[in-house]
Protein 1
Amino acid sequence: MQNSSSTLHWAFKLFAVGCLFLTGAVNVLSGTASELPERLISADFGQVKGPLNTAFKECVGAGRANEGLRADWQQQLARVHKECGFT
């Protein structure tokens, strides 16, 4: 059985998806979707914009503070630190 917080969370997600669906349906039915100009988005993966940002190597996060107290989590963190080299 789900608790009320979890049920409320899923109800909110369902409501948000429903709103997005209805907004799209209203746009299509009213013709506003066809009035928008077509956009072309392109990307050149061979072009380098600048140096690689390596901020991702600075830290690793966990979901909750109490997870950091578990021995198995600390062992996994040590392994990831050894293999990835984050500071």
Note: The chain has a mean pLDDT of 75.
Protein 2
Amino acid sequence: MRFDWERWAVVGPKDDTGLGRQAESIRAVLGIGGQLAPPSERLLDRPLAGPGDRRLDPRCPRDEVRELLRGLQGVLVLERPNWHRELLPLSRELGVRTVCAPNWEWFAARDPLWRHCELFVCCSRFALGVVRRCGWRNAVGVGPWPLPLGRFPARRVGGPARIFVHNGALMDPFDRKGTHDVIRAFRRVGRPDLRLIVHLQREAELRDLDQRVDVRVGNLEEPAELYAEADVAVQPSKIEGVGFLVLEALASGLPVVTTDAPPMNEYVAQRELRVAPRWFKRRAFQTGWIPQAHRRLPRPSDLAAKIAWCAEHDLAGIAAANRAWAEASFDPGRVRREWEEALGR
């Protein structure tokens, strides 16, 4: 099959959430021509970019969905099958290819709509394992989620770290990104010559702050701005589907401190930077419909030790290795070939 990516559409929100960023980045790398954009559930919708972008009202009639699919070669559905209950069945009926890129922590494997999905494309070994263990054999693995590397200029990091950065994104009651953990661990290190930048997309109540912590609130025009002045990114996420914020920091050539749990530990090669999780028995979400979803909490003492280690060691080698890995992993020609081979199986 010849892939005409201009005649494909991503299905997912057009906003500044992680899902919105996933849609934006994969369109840029693969050259996908359009997007069917359901309403954002957490932030304001961004404007449509061109004639290939359409709003997808979850309550619109079947005929309207049929019209949205007219002329498409395929749809790449992010995370879930039910952005509109008729989307996948109608796509199959019309001969439009149906591909899903699932975020494993939201993968509701028993949803009957999945039977209309031809292929699951998983961007981590862990996600692939989850989907297959749930009984779906039409799943393939590819490399990490595609990033447009040109948007992440390489940082030249050398010597021990002095400035650390943490992206708390949209803080939720579970504190998924581990923002409170980062602040507490940084306070434990206690060195007056260190500085921590905490970036949030909206205001949140933060505790244990001191004069070394700089809290910044608001969306950035370019995600690389967050990494422009830091030496190390600290992202001890408790649960991640793609690990987008880890990947962006790696793409910028920053050393990344993260939780030693998948998928983050598939990307961060240095054991010195992976924080041991502590044991606990609560699931991430109090629902039974996503049994595989569970948090991995970073061990506070080990997180502080990892921050201190970065402040005591020359990080130039790690930074150079991270950027080299990103240049190989996110080469657009290689990514397109890998996706086309996966979809052509």
Note: The radius of gyration is 20 Å.
